């Protein structure tokens, strides 16, 4: 039995805010509470309200503001020796680093956050930080390295009845299964995540689950209209909650569905929209994936093969630099599908994290 989902990152005077609160509302209330906390002189409340401000800025794609906010929250927490608040600030900073494509920094900050959470007795901060480390490894494609950690965190979340964390872990493991070809298992886990999220009133978690279901319905079952319907439902949630990054990933998946349905002109338009969205929030991983989709769509629309090869070569270098192994494999597969020779040996990878 799962309890109603709650937003553990909204703390102190903001603890009553719903997990489904609009991010714009969180930013407004967090900024107000931060101002009041500074006037009152409560450093713990300054650190906790600063965390909410940092997270709101991050989810809205305000990279510079988010960076300043989490660092300020950490410094304040450290000044009063609040290990739990320090852990949460580092978790926010690590999550932002992953969003920006700084994966090595993300792992380091999240590892420090997990250690501080454990030392400070904040089991939730520890769990969120370990989850962040697992997700960082997963998006790089290091599945074997993080599968056990995902499953450990899922077991812990189930045992505590934490709906939001259970949904996150299910979605992470489902994505690993999907990326390794186990569509049936992935679909079952995405569907369980969607059901738990709905019952626990976790709209963000449900939106991500719907995106995962739509992906498999499109890739495995070749049902683009059903997939697009699921994505429209997820898009509505993301729009209402001002989930800028999640909305962009939802639009990218729409491009994938249209591409698989051979609706290449519509796919091109979707990828171009998505590319602009990711660039606006400085999210290089999403930008790289949108670029890959756009290159493939343009190739099917008759673009010159030499230009396609040049774009794929540049993209492969960027993927190696960021350390996105799975996405690099997808780019190599695209080269083969489009009849473009592999990159010469020794090209790409030197600057990557592989």
UniProtKB/TrEMBL annotation:
InterPro entries: TPR-like_helical_dom_sf, TPR_rpt. It comes from Streptomyces maoxianensis. This is Tetratricopeptide repeat protein. Transmembrane segments: none annotated. PANTHER family: HTH-TYPE TRANSCRIPTIONAL REGULATOR RV0890C-RELATED, REGULATOR-RELATED. It comes from the Bacteria.
